[in-house]
Structure formats: C-alpha cells, structure tokens
C-alpha cells in the first residue's frame, strides 16, 4: 500500500493502540529490540530539504543495494529515551540536543539533515504513536533511535542523491547484563576507536562497527566492555564502546575533553552540569590511563547505559577494582539526581525535560 493510504487508516488504529499498555512482560526488559507499532519516515534529495515526513506502520524498508549507506557507510544515528511519569504523561530528555548533534554529524558526513524543529516534532509524534510501549514508571524507558542515511543509489564514491530520516522505538531496561551492578572493563591497547581528523566525534554508524572486534574479544573473556586509549600517545582515555567515561578522585571528577575523537554525549554533558551544581569540580582534560590506579570511583555515562558504575578495569597485566560491588557514593548521587529528573520525580530546575 502507498504511504498515503497507510496514513489514512492511522488515526483509527492509533486511538485503540495508544489507550493501553502493550501486553508484554514489563519486569524483565533488557536492551534487546522489540518491534513496536509505528516508525517515522522523511526523505530529501541531495541539495534539497526534508519535507512531508509521516508515521507509517513499523516494518522493513526498501533500500537500493547500491545505496550510499550500504556501500559507503553514509549514515548517522541518535539515541534518546522517553520515560512514563506516575501521572501517565511522557517525558523526553533534551531532544533538541540530539537534533543539533545530528546536524553536526550530517555536515561531517555530507548529508542534509532535518531542522531541529522537524527532528523534535518527529520524535514527539513517534513516541505518542507508540505510547503503549513506554514502560510503566520504574520498569524502564522507550528507547528512541533516529537514523539518517544516504538511501539513494551510488556506485562511484560520492554523497548519495537521496536521504532518509527514520525514527523507530523499542522499550528497554538496563543496557548491560549486569543491570545496575558495576561493569568490568578492559583497556584496549592495540585497536583504536577513533583518530584525529576522523569521525570519532560524530555518531556515524561506522564508529560502532569498528569497535565490534575488540568488544567481542573482551566479552569472550568475561569483560563487560572495552575502554579505548588515544591512538597518538596510546595513554589517554577516550571512551568505552557505547559510552563516555568519568574518573573520580576526592571531590574532583575528570573526563576526557571533547577533541574530535570523543563522542559529545548528552548524558556526559548533563552529568557535568549536575555534578557542578552539587559542588564537584569537573575537569575536561587529557586523562592518563595511569590515573585509573589512583581513582576512588570510575563510571560511564550514555543514553543507553545512563550512569553505570565501573567495578574493575584491567590494563595489560594490572587489574584495579573500585567500590564494593555497588555504586560509589559520587556516582550513586549523580545517577540518582539525573534519573529522578529524567523520570519527573524531582523538579526540573535545568529545564531539560519535555512533557508530552
Ligand atoms: C546510546 O547510548 O544511545 C547509544 O547510542 C550507544 C549505543 C551503542 C547503544
């Protein structure tokens, strides 16, 4: 059926489907994909602008085997979450930040991108259309995955002639199988995630494919994930495969500065502001791998991982442990402040949440 016909039937199905909670086991959500009801699609020709976006039933999409995204990795993604409040309303967290980050990434990847307003409106429409998939309070969140890809056909290396912006959603719980228990990291000393002048600072799909080899090897040895070092000096912390990293020593919290090879996480940025508002000194700078030996606490931040305490880090033949099997005091405090704000349990003095 054509998109137009699908749209005509949307509002009827919509009313019944959004009136209740989806019939799934809400207690044991992990971070696996669960198909939901609707996705959002919007297209644009190279040199043009995005328009006529619409909701469609969730399903497979058609792509030319010669599309820019399949052949040359011309693609970006975003990650966001929506929480259900006690009163049933839904909260988004800083959606315009994701929109802006996608615009910066699109510029790096020679792609047109939706305006901030188009992006945020599309996210709202997709979440509302899939409202029954937003977990009950305390059971998790609805993960929102906006994609931007070169969908037009190319053969020689060049920007694609057509682009697709797509949003799909899936209910999720904790990212790591450890739940909110501390994760165990291994420092990777051969493979690197990003290089100066490369694309480490934008959310291009290739950055994530590039870490799979080290991540799979680490998981096979029982580690939760990999911590990358800079590729020039091979001694400064960069980030974990899917999240940013913070090191706590006394009242000082340090995190690698954004310098082109590190993904500018929105949770990272928010945690820095929350920590400063609580009187911590936060330093964005080069963090030497040896500082891990002296740290009181280490934690990771990201949309998917939220704030995850690190229980141990292995580097070459040394293993250093933190805490006693749970959150350290600083990471616990920051986790609690951020998540209570995201879930609407405390007043949002930062004006970060958007209520639907
Ligand atoms: C996120 O945290 O939302 C991300 O995009 C990371 C991804 C690997 C799950």
From TrEMBL:
Organism per entry: Rubus argutus
N6-(pyridoxal phosphate)lysine carried by residues: 203
Pathway note: Amino-acid biosynthesis; L-isoleucine biosynthesis; L-isoleucine from 2-oxobutanoate: step 4/4; Amino-acid biosynthesis; L-valine biosynthesis; L-valine from pyruvate: step 4/4; Amino-acid biosynthesis; L-leucine biosynthesis; L-leucine from 3-methyl-2-oxobutanoate: step 4/4
Keyword Transport: no
EC class name: transferase
Residues of the full protein shown: 59 to 414 of 420
GO CC annotation, single: chloroplast
The family this protein is said to belong to: Belongs to the class-IV pyridoxal-phosphate-dependent aminotransferase family.
Assigned keywords, A-Z: Amino-acid biosynthesis, Aminotransferase, Branched-chain amino acid biosynthesis, Pyridoxal phosphate, Transferase, Transit peptide
Cofactor: pyridoxal 5'-phosphate
Protein name per the record: Branched-chain-amino-acid aminotransferase
Domain of life: Eukaryota
């Amino acid at each position: 059926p054509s998109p137009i016909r699908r749209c005509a039937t949307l509002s009827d199905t919509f009313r019944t489907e959004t009136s209740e909670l989806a019939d799934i086991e809400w207690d044991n959500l992990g971070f696996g994909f669960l198909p939901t009801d609707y996705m959002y699609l919007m297209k644009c020709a190279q040199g043009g602008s995005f328009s006529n976006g619409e909701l469609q039933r969730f399903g497979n999409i058609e792509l030319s085997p010669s599309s820019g995204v399949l052949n040359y990795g011309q693609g970006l993604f975003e990650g966001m979450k929506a929480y259900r409040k006690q009163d049933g309303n839904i909260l988004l967290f800083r959606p315009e930040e994701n929109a802006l980050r996608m615009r910066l990434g699109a510029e790096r990847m020679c792609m047109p991108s939706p305006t901030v307003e188009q992006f945020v409106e599309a996210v709202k429409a997709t979440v509302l259309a899939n409202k029954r998939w937003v977990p009950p309070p305390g059971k998790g969140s609805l993960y929102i995955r906006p994609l931007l890809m070169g969908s037009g056909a190319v053969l020689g290396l060049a920007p694609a002639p057509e682009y697709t912006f797509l949003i799909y959603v899936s209910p999720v719980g904790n990212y790591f199988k450890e739940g909110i228990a501390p994760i165990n990291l291994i420092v990777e000393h051969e493979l690197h995630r990003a290089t100066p002048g490369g694309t480490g600072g934008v959310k291009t799909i290739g950055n994530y494919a590039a870490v799979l080899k080290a991540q799979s090897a680490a998981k096979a040895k029982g580690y939760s994930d990999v911590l990358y070092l800079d590729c020039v000096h091979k001694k400064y912390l960069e980030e974990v495969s899917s999240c940013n990293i913070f090191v706590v020593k006394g009242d000082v919290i340090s995190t690698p500065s954004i310098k082109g090879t590190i993904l500018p996480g929105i949770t990272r940025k928010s945690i820095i502001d929350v920590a400063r508002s609580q009187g911590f000194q936060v330093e964005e700078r080069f963090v030497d791998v040896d500082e891990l030996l002296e740290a009181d606490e280490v934690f990771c931040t990201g949309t998917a991982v939220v704030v995850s305490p690190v229980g141990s880090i292995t580097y070459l033949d040394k293993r250093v442990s933190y805490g006693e099997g749970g959150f350290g005091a600083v990471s616990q405090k920051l986790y609690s402040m951020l998540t209570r704000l995201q879930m609407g349990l405390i007043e949002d003095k930062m004006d970060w949440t958007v209520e639907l």
